[in-house]
Amino acid sequence: MTKPRSFLDPKIIAKLAHQTLESRRAMIGSVSGRHSSPMRGSSLEFAQYRKYVPGDDTRRLDWRVWGRSDRSYIKEFEADTNLRMCFAVDASGSMNYCAKSEGGTLNNGNAESHSGSSKLHRAKSIAGSLAWLAVKQGDAVGLSTSHPTNGKDIPPRRGARHLKLVLDQLDLIKGEGDCDLPARLHTLAERIPRRGLVVIVSDLFVDLEELSRSLKHLRHRKHDLVIFHLIDAEELNLPFGQPMKFVDLEGGQPLLADPVVILNNYHRIVGDYLSQLKEIVSKLEIDYRRIGSDQNLADVLSSFLAARAGSRKRR
């Protein structure tokens, strides 16, 4: 990387450098790698026995079984492959939100204007750090942004040169307009030809029924799904004690309201939203992580990687 990037924190990179990114599901890649595949191959991890049929490689016969039973069985092993990983990064206007404790409640559309504390800046940091780690271990990475006029889709590929292309595109993303995340996920489900890891980084200010349909589409295509849900404590709790104007960063009309008056209804609506979201990710077996501005990203990502490494060992 020849160019310094504000969203790549050396402390995060250093913490992740000795960890690995694992898939929870069998992958189909183009080269050998560290991730399990649904195909049978020649790795050291035994999968199963099956009866010998003419044409099988006799080197894989289990001669001990033949000696005991006079029956011919072939030993099959899990094939290992590389991972195809694609990031779906929300580039809507609401991703410009900055928590008050981080320097301001709303900004003017520039995601870098509060010392890199906006949700979009954190989304870039998550995607950039994990992309760096994936390429480091020989996996392919791609990028899609959830705004039709904000950037371009980059299909998953391997190598340092391709990583630079992904990071350059992350650098260019600006939060603006409405979120079309569900439509973008439907497109990804059709464009990614083989099963892979799809990492969604968003505040999920979308219709949950539409989101559910798009996630089901991806799961139907056998993709392993991760959601990093960026939502701040201020957005959950509305901790303001006086009337104020709330601005819709995605272009809607501003609303003048007294938080004290609307607080109970607000909490009920937010609670219903989180309950529905929890049910969706649970049914679809999605790896879901909710992240606030007060959380340390290095710790969040390190914990995420450790949990997925543990799930591989339990398989």
Give an account of the 3D structure.
The structure is a single chain. The protein is an alpha/beta fold and 315 residues long. It has 2 domains: 10-24 and 82-314, 3-Layer(aba) Sandwich (Rossmann fold), CATH 3.40.50.410; 37-80, no CATH class. Helix content is 37%, strand content 21%. The protein has a 6-stranded mixed β-sheet with strand order 5-4-3-6-7-10, with helices on both faces. Strands 1-2 form a two-stranded antiparallel ribbon. The chain has a two-stranded antiparallel sheet with strand order 8-9. Strand 8 and strand 9 (255-257) form a beta hairpin. Helix 1 packs parallel to helix 9 and helix 3 runs antiparallel to helix 4 (160-172). The longest helix has 25 residues, at 259-283. It is elongated, with a radius of gyration of 23 Å. The two termini are 36 Å apart. Residues 27-47 and 101-116 have low confidence and may be disordered.
